[in-house]
Amino acid sequence: MSVKKKPFTEQIALVTGGGSGIGRALTEVLAIHGVQIVIASRRTEKLSETAAAINELVGWERVFTYGCDIRNLAEIESLVTYTIERWNTIDILINNSGLAVPETVDQITDAGWDKVIETNLRGVMQLTRAVVPHMLQNDFGDIVNISSQAGKHGYADVPSYCASKFGLLGFAEALRDQVRKASANIRIFNLCPGLVDVENTGSNAVPKPGFIHLSNIARTLVYALSLDRNVVLEDINIYAS
Ligand SMILES: NC(=O)c1ccc[n+]([C@@H]2O[C@H](COP(=O)([O-])OP(=O)(O)OC[C@H]3O[C@@H](n4cnc5c(N)ncnc54)[C@H](OP(=O)(O)O)[C@@H]3O)[C@@H](O)[C@H]2O)c1
Fold first, then answer.
1. 67-116: pLDDT as tens digits
2. Full-prediction pTM beyond 0.85?
3. Which of 38, 41, 70 to mutate to test the pocket of ligand 1 (most atoms within 8 A of CB)?
4. What's the angle, vertex CA 235, arms to CA 230 and CA 238, rounded to 5?
5. What is the pLDDT of residue 168?
6. Ligand 1 mean position to 7 CA, how many Å?
7. Catalytic residue among 155, 161, 223, 239, which?
8. What would the pLDDT profile of 151-201 be if each residue is shown by its tens digit?
9. Are residues 50 and 20 in contact, defined by beta-carbon separation less than 8 angstroms?
């Protein structure tokens, strides 16, 4: 039996935190390839600015916005409902929203801890849980988690961030095992970047020392998504040499 394929031009993506930084770069590259994208996060003005700029760049309305705090389950569920009611599919889910609260273990506060874990891990798990049934029903889907090198190595100043990004990889591995056992046409990728320069983003900009240019993350996404449907590409470690 042949595995279902879909050209980018027929795909709908959901990118959390798509208004800024890495999420914006991933949204732009998907839009250039013809994907329609819903970008979702808290700052709706920032989302609108980004959508307008990318839509102008590609000459089509391909980027849409939805205000959503990933720490709020009702908002997560209404984001998925909106997208499904409008397009009837979510083909690509990019779990990109995230933040760090720098505090060593002896200084860590419960508030800081909750903020990081609820944003980077619990919210991602809840959103993924809401999206997967639609991917199963449509027999097609790609989930891309933006973890970090802090999901691979411990750094003293961001223990809760490390815990959340390591946790994301464990969650992804469990989900990958579920979809493999179900023979579902769903792939799960984890991008684990080191430092990415989200300030010097022009095409000729030189990244800060120790950082990589944002465009490398965008190119890696397209490469990963373009692989054959039966190819599993596990954690992608990408950092400055
Ligand atoms: N830059 C790096 O060097 C680097 C390296 C490795 C991994 N990463 C990861 O890459 C991802 C993107 O980071 P970035 O560097 O591009 O920084 P960024 O521009 O600050 O992006 C973070 C995004 O997360 C969204 N966000 C934060 N809290 C949220 C919430 N409660 N609900 C919904 N969205 C929320 C923000 O949007 P709103 O404020 O509008 O909500 C923002 O668009 C993060 O997961 C980060 O951990 C970054």
1. 999 999 999 999 999 999 999 999 999 999 999 999 999 999 999 999 99
2. yes
3. 41
4. 125
5. 98
6. 28
7. 161
8. 999 999 999 999 999 999 999 999 999 999 999 999 999 999 999 999 999
9. yes
Dihedral angle sign, alpha carbons of residues 220, 50, 19, 156:
positive
- Distance, CA of 167 to chain centre: 15
**Ligand 1 binding pocket includes 99 (Cβ within 6 Å):** yes
Give ∠ CA 101-121-131 in degrees, rounded to 5.
140
When pLDDT is cut at 50, 70 and 90, the band that residue 1 belongs to is: low
Fold of the 8-238 domain: Rossmann fold (3.40.50)
- Structure tokens belonging to residue 55: 């839509």
Active site residue 66: no
Ligand 1 pocket residue status of 16, Cβ below 6 Å: yes
Tell me the pLDDT of the chain averaged across its residues: 97
Q: Which of 24, 96, 200 for a ligand 1 pocket mutation test, highest count of atoms within 8 Å of Cβ?
A: 96
* Domain residue extents for the chain: 8-238
User: What is the pLDDT at residue 2?
Assistant: 85
Q: CA 62, 64, 68: angle at the middle one, nearest 5?
A: 150
Nearest CA to ligand 1 atom 42: 17
Helices (H), the chain: 21-32, 44-58, 73-87, 110-117, 123-138, 159-181, 215-226
By residue count, the chain amounts to 241
Atom of ligand 1 nearest to the CA of 16: 34
**Ligand 1: distance of its center to the CA of 23 in Å?**
7
For atom 14 of ligand 1, the residue with the nearest CA is 21
